[in-house]
Write a structure and sequence with these properties.
The chain is an alpha+beta fold. The protein has one domain (1-229): Porin (Beta Barrel). Helices cover 35% and strands 41% of the residues. It has two helices and nine strands; from the N terminus they run αβαββββββββ. It has helices at residues 2-76, 110-115, and strands spanning 91-102, 119-128, 133-143, 148-149, 151-160, 172-181, 185-198, 203-214, 217-228.
Length: 229
């Protein structure tokens, strides 16, 4: 009996050891599968993010080209809306596109700034005709070179000058300031904003001039925007 019990116990121990080894292998396989799935999901998310950014850039580029083409004749001939003819009250929301170039030595046209920018962004304007004030933001920035979205926004604070003489003055003046985190612009950006209304007040176009912080220090920034109701 002692011999039988010893053999039986040895057999039980052997089966237990084999069972334990099998469990370890299963755990390792599950961990490997989980890691592989996580990597695949991460790559898929990155691919989706890149595709979304490219789509955002394409949409902004096309929208900017369409808007500029629609108002090109008015812009080139300086046919702006007299600010005295704007509504005396009420509010409106405009949206559109802006283009920016960093570090250019020469002054660029609005067409060049929107057609060949370093950055594109969306324009969101809240216009209070009763208070003659315009607020809003430049946001949803995209780096035109990499077609990648970048973080940041510029807050807009501008006024409507109803007595502006359009032969020598603009009807909208103000500023746009904030922080941008991109491969070029990376820090504070401060811009002067000047613009005029088009098509009896149905659109607003303008220029942006100022400076932005980059990895190479402070650089000049030029921009142009156009937005409609």
């Amino acid at each position: 009996m002692p011999l039988f019990r010893c053999v039986a116990l040895s057999a039980i121990c052997l089966v237990t050891a084999c069972g334990g080894g099998g469990g370890g292998g299963t755990t390792e396989a599950a961990a490997a599968a989980s890691a592989a799935a996580s990597t695949t999901a991460s790559k898929a998310a990155e691919t989706t993010k890149t595709a979304t950014a490219v789509k955002s850039y394409t949409l902004l580029r096309n929208e900017g080209a369409t808007l500029f083409a629609a108002y090109e004749d008015q812009l080139n001939s300086d046919r702006f809306t007299d600010p005295g003819d704007l509504p005396g009250g009420g509010k409106a929301s405009f949206d559109g596109v802006a283009g920016y170039v960093v570090g250019a030595v020469q002054s660029l046209s609005e067409e060049a700034l929107i057609a060949n920018p370093d950055y594109l962004s969306r324009v969101d304007l809240a216009i209070d005709f009763g208070a003659d004030r315009i607020t809003g933001s430049f946001d949803d920035f995209v780096d035109a070179r990499t077609q990648k979205e970048i973080k940041g926004a510029l807050d807009i604070d501008a006024q409507i000058n109803r007595s502006a003489n359009l032969t020598s003055e603009v009807s909208v003046t103000g500023s746009a300031a904030g922080r941008i985190s991109g491969s070029g612009l990376n820090g504070d950006v401060t811009l002067d904003l000047n613009g005029d209304f088009l098509s009896d007040g149905a659109a607003l176009s303008g220029r942006l001039e100022g400076t932005g912080q980059t990895s190479d220090g402070l650089r000049n920034v030029q921009g142009a925007f156009i937005a409609t109701d």
